[in-house]
């Protein structure tokens, strides 16, 4: 047997704890890739369909661990994971636990310490896609922690989506996850607030979408040029030749006043204006708008 097939063989038995919408999607992907799967969920009936398709239903989380070379956990939060394992005597004996529950970096660090105390090889992770996209090769799942654990189980993890190992620091996967969600919500809020401004003049979202999303986003808020400027953020270099913070404050003032005039929510533009004002007060008035990055890096 080659070392590679040994790894395949070893990971053929997978344990899964948590069968919410995401856990069920993980189960589907694992079954689709031919893994034998042992599952446990608080509400046992959620496993019925999986059992009909060949999965084993365990009576406890300890049984899942005993039947599996790697156990994946996907629950509502980390506290639930402790509650489940603290109520049973699960014998990991150095086998891996991959936690795909969303949380914070401190929660991931506490989980690593808990796992070390129980003789568990622990990898933390986060899922960047909704349940229907799990299992597609282009769907990214984030991992952090021991590189050796990741490499050993990489083939299995690749059956859930594109596995990205972000570093040994255990909190990195959930930190990246939160950063990307932060970007998603602020971007979506930008679109929604702008649409509300147009709605105040009875322009439909559908009508506005063509200009806002069809032209403005790709042509002006252009992701390639944002990526090109990333090194400037790292270097704290914000040349103001093409537009200064003071000029941008003027635009933010217009957004705020127009929101107030049109009777739509004005807190979001007011906050953006306030952040630019703070940047100017800190001496960035003649630099470009990206200097607000210096405000974001500070604890408020
Ligand atoms: N759904 C998404 O779109 C999505 C996308 C990316 C990441 N995620 C992450 O994936 C994780 C799971 O999400 P989800 O969508 O499957 O739903 P969820 O509501 O976050 O988690 C549901 C799971 O937690 C279990 N659970 C909750 N309280 C429990 C308790 N006291 N004791 C035992 N089990 C308990 C549920 O068991 P019962 O079935 O018995 O209630 C179920 O298995 C979360 O961390 C979420 O942030 C979800």
Strand content: 5-15%
What is the subunit organization of this protein? Answer: single chain
Characterize the overall form: elongated
Approximately how much helix is present in the residues? 40-55%
Question: What is the level 1 CATH name of the largest domain?
Answer: Alpha Beta
Reported CATH architecture of the largest domain: 3-Layer(aba) Sandwich
Tell me what you see in this structure.
- With 300 residues, the chain is of the alpha/beta class.
- The radius of gyration is 24 Å and the shape is elongated.
- It has an eight-stranded mixed β-sheet, with helices on both faces.
- The relative contact order is 0.08.
- The N and C termini lie far apart (57 Å).
- α8 packs across α9 and α12 packs antiparallel against α13.
- It is built from 14 helices and eight strands.
- α7 links the parallel β7 and β8 (162-165).
- NADP nicotinamide-adenine-dinucleotide phosphate binds at residues 18-23, 41-43, 46, 74-76, 80, 83-84, 101-102, 127, 130-131.
Task: Break the fold down into its secondary structure elements and pairings.
Blueprint: H1 3-10, E1 13-17, H2 21-32, E2 36-40, H3 48-52, E3 56-57, H4 61-67, E4 70-73, H5 78-86, E5 96-99, H6 105-117, E6 121-127, E7 140-145, H7 147-158, E8 162-165, H8 172-199, H9 205-219, H10 223-228, H11 230-235, H12 245-262, H13 267-284, H14 293-296
Parallel strand pairs: 1-2, 1-4, 2-3, 4-5, 5-6, 7-8
Antiparallel strand pairs: 6-7
Helix pairs in contact: 8-9, 12-13
The site of NADP nicotinamide-adenine-dinucleotide phosphate has 21 residues, from helix 2 and helix 5.
